[in-house]
Amino acid sequence: MSELPRWTCFAFVALLVAAGPGCKRADPQPVQGAAPVVAPAAVTPASQPSQLIEDDYARALAEARSRKLPLFVEVWASWCHTCNSMRQYVLPDPVLASLAGSFVWAGIDSERADNAAFLKRFPTRNLPTLWVIDSATEQPLLKWIGAATAQELSLLLSQARENPQPTAAESGAAAATAEWVRGNRASATGDAAQAIERYRAALQAAPADWSLRARAVETLSMRYIETAAQREAFELARQHAASLPASTARLNVVLNGIDSGAELAQEGPAPEGLSELLALGTRIAEDPAEPVLLDDRSSLYLSLVHAQSKAQPAESKRLAARWSALLDAEAAKAQLPAARRVWDPHRLEAYMALGETQKAVPMLEQSEREVPDDYNPPARLARALLTLGQLEPARAASERALARCEGPRKLRLYMLKSDILLAQSERAGAADALRDALRYADERQLAPQYDKLRQSIERKIAAL
């Protein structure tokens, strides 16, 4: 999550934010003396985000160099609900208009084969990822995984121009900020271990009123998630979450703690403090005054519903009902079909958690009619129909999705087809679908980040 081309006033590493797993977001916190973050205002979404140069990095870089501006690159994918939320509700926001001429803005679809060179140079494991790139040197100045409200993003980018220059010799807040700068530099270059070390040092050096504390806790949490350090992510949330100000940073820390605690509970007894985190997460999710994006709130609901599903099934259902009603209301007031479709994936999850999967079918059929070339609606429809036991329609929907998809997501679609065929007792066909997935991965020469998925497919083939 980062992007900002180098320019004298854009040496903005002290404010870089690194965030977590795909389709989860990290948002900036206000620095000392800045206006407080407020709840996101209602936005009339645009059909397309303004000013984005789409899928043409060379052109965007050339323009940035000619104008001596930093380059902002959003890496996204059509299946990523957070990416679509950013594009429909954040990037078109008038709040960002004052920064329109301060960057060259670009979008990179991670599923397009012609973007492979960019993704090789700027490895992107989670979506959305926002890069700020020095247009003169092509060095990454910021790698920011996740989203932000328009107010938060504007604040972050505006403060980047202040170009703070802390030194390690200073003490207190200055020393903490210096370690913070080094941690963000390490995050931008992909050195998670070094970033973790620096973020820890920053928190140790910081005074109680350090203005970047919430952001430092959040980015440390995200790096723990990135390195599969679930115990550390849980303990960090347990230690700090209750003292953080209301913000997306707090939401992300709590969400990561809940996910990590739920995973630890699957391997043994529920860790001490998980119930308190669940209670805090529930208060954040259900409080309409929380200054967070609805997409972030929805992701928190998803984690809460999952974490409570076994230990507290009645509470899980109650939360799923609140979640479903919240998303249905947002979809109903969407002024454009694309804005309404942003909520399709989480509405499906909420309906499934409630045992009301049938409610998703007309929603997804409508979306498929609206965007007949998009593989996502039929893929989600296939999953819903499989859950309902309507196997032939599910199979047909999965075939439509496969025919329309030409990105790495196709591996998941082959796996879905295999599950449908297995439900139809067609074991040989199910294995063939998985072999098709491996052949596709070989043909596309997918990045190493897909190795674990390939191994999972290979294990499934062996089991069949």
Could you please describe the fold and organization of this structure?
By secondary structure, this protein is mainly α. Among the domains are: 8-33 and 40-180, Glutaredoxin (3-Layer(aba) Sandwich), CATH 3.40.30.10; 228-311, no CATH class. 56% of the residues lie in helices and 6% in strands. Helix 11 packs antiparallel against helix 12 (313-333) and helix 17 runs antiparallel to helix 18 (410-423). The chain is globular, with a radius of gyration of 22 Å.
The CATH class label of the domain at 8-33 and 40-180 is Alpha Beta
Weakly predicted, low-confidence segments: 1-22, 24-49
Q: Taking Cα atoms only, what radius of gyration do you get, to the nearest Å?
A: 22 Å
Q: What composes the largest sheet?
A: 5 strands, mixed
Overall geometry: globular
Structure summary, number of beta strands: 5
Tell me the quaternary state.
Answer: single chain
Say what the CATH topology of the domain at 8-33 and 40-180 is: Glutaredoxin
Layout of strands and helices, then pairs:
Layout: E1 52-54, H1 57-67, E2 71-76, H2 81-90, E3 104-109, H3 116-121, E4 129-133, E5 140-145, H4 150-160, H5 173-188, H6 192-205, H7 213-226, H8 230-240, H9 248-267, H10 274-286, H11 294-308, H12 313-333, H13 337-341, H14 344-354, H15 360-370, H16 376-387, H17 391-404, H18 410-423, H19 427-444, H20 451-463
Parallel strand pairs: 1-3, 2-3
Antiparallel strand pairs: 2-4, 4-5
Helix pairs in contact: 5-6, 6-7, 7-8, 7-9, 8-9, 9-10, 9-11, 10-11, 11-12, 11-14, 12-14, 14-15, 14-16, 15-16, 16-17, 16-18, 17-18, 18-19, 19-20
